[in-house]
Specification:
Layout (H helix, E strand, L loop, with lengths): L2 H8 L10 H26 L1 H20 L8 H22 L3 H17 L5 H11 L3 H4 L6 H21 L30 H11 L7 H20 L4 H4 L13 H11 L3 E5 L5 E6 H12 L15 H4 L7 E2 L4 H9 L5 E6 L2 E7 H21 L1
Parallel strand pairs: 3-4
Antiparallel strand pairs: 1-2, 4-5
Helix pairs in contact: 2-3, 2-8, 3-6, 3-8, 4-5, 4-6, 4-8, 5-6, 12-13
InterPro entries: CBS_dom, CBS_dom_sf, Diverse_CBS-Domain, TM_HPP
Protein name: CBS domain-containing membrane protein
Organism: Pseudomonas japonica
Length: about 375
């Protein structure tokens, strides 16, 4: 068999879904629940004939809302608006021209154009329009009131999709939330200022010139995750243990404010892990944590007339709980924590004990050395 023919046959092999079996059952049970509730309510209010006639397109919609919940076609606006368009087009053509194959084709054409115009493309909407254009007498007799069972079904399925998906750990609908920099400014997060930007993504989608069934925010997340995995592969075996400072300077909960200031200044540090008597990490303090209490102590107060007030200890001002990492954590996974989360120091734990700390300086130095090594290898090659 020629290589060209082999490649042609390869096109018929389905691509991997990248969906675990647990997700198959989760989405299947959710779709069944939504369809059963909608069908029962529609049968009770409008009769079994109307309910059965509307079940097929509704079942297709449940596949999208539960199994393809991240898709652009699966979001609430395309779902609800497409059903309204389908009901208007389908039943309108049925009453104007009567049932027939040509009428069904006209319904399909018009509803696709209308959905594209209103940005509510949802394939089951086209099926619903054709179904209503070919409606049996009992459904056609409802006239414009047919929108009532259509919307009832859609609203029930949407309500179940929102509740069930969220209860089972799936965010639906997908709402794009702007990512903010740690300092509350208008800048992008530091880790996203180099590489693919939102503007690049918009330009690529415009150049593609065709519909992509994934929301823009989900597509951006996929690209960023792909970049992160690529960087992780290129960084090889660089882990937290490789870059951490091992001679950890720490304080105790009983350390006073003055002692902490002196310790930070003498070692040129910005953070101090706080360990209890058993060596367990119980908190962390930074320069910013010390500023407020230090200024408060410096202010004049009546107690200063009769002697020194009680010293402030780190137990009163330390931050807890502390974000930590394990020693085998990949360096690329530390970047979002130290850049986007605004952290300056990550304690490294082994068996619950602090064995080192990774600071922004440690990570920058390690990445710099890695880039220089890569450049030397490239020149040698």
């Amino acid at each position: 068999m020629s290589s060209g023919l082999s490649r042609w046959f390869d096109r018929f092999i389905p691509a991997a879904l990248h969906i675990p079996p647990k997700e198959w059952f989760r989405s299947a049970f959710g779709a069944l629940l939504a369809l059963a509730l909608a069908g029962s309510a529609c049968t009770w209010l409008f009769g079994s004939a109307a309910a059965l006639h509307l079940m097929a397109p509704l079942a297709a919609s449940t596949v999208l809302l539960f199994a393809v919940h991240s898709g652009a076609l699966s979001q609430p606006w395309p779902f609800l608006a497409s059903y309204v368009c389908a009901a208007a087009v389908g039943i309108g053509l049925h009453h104007l021209l009567g049932p027939g194959l040509l009428v069904a084709g006209a319904a399909l054409l018009l509803v696709i154009l209308l959905m594209c115009l209103l940005r509510c493309l949802h394939p089951p909407g086209a099926a619903l329009a054709v179904s209503l254009a070919l409606a049996d007498p009992s459904l056609a007799a409802m006239g414009v009131r047919v929108i009532e069972p259509v919307l009832l079904n859609a609203l029930i399925v949407l309500a179940v999709a929102v509740g069930y998906n969220r209860l089972t750990g799936v965010l639906y609908p997908k709402i794009g939330m702007p990512r903010k920099a740690a300092h509350g400014t208008a800048d992008q997060p530091a880790s996203e200022r180099v590489g693919v930007s939102g503007k690049d993504l918009d330009q690529a989608l415009d150049e593609l010139g065709e519909f992509v069934d994934v929301t823009r925010d989900e597509l951006e997340r996929i690209i960023l995750a792909t970049e992160r995995h690529a960087v992780q592969r290129s960084l090889g075996g660089i882990t937290a243990a490789s870059v951490m400072s091992r001679d950890v300077q720490f304080a105790t909960p009983e350390t006073t404010l003055a002692q902490a200031w002196k310790q930070l200044a003498s070692h040129h540090l910005k953070n101090l892990p706080v360990l209890d008597d058993g060596g367990r990490l119980v908190g962390i303090v930074s320069l910013s944590d010390l500023v407020g209490p230090a200024m408060a102590q410096a202010r004049f107060n009546w107690r200063s007339l009769f002697g020194r007030g009680k010293d402030v200890t780190l137990a009163q001002i330390m931050s807890e709980p502390v974000i930590t990492v394990s020693s085998d954590r990949q360096a690329v996974e530390l970047i979002p924590l130290l850049c986007d989360r605004g952290l300056h120091c990550l304690p490294v734990l082994e068996a619950g004990k602090v064995v080192g700390v990774v600071t922004q300086t440690d990570l920058i130095a390690a990445l710099s050395q890695h880039l220089l090594a890569q450049e030397r290898l490239a020149r040698a090659a």
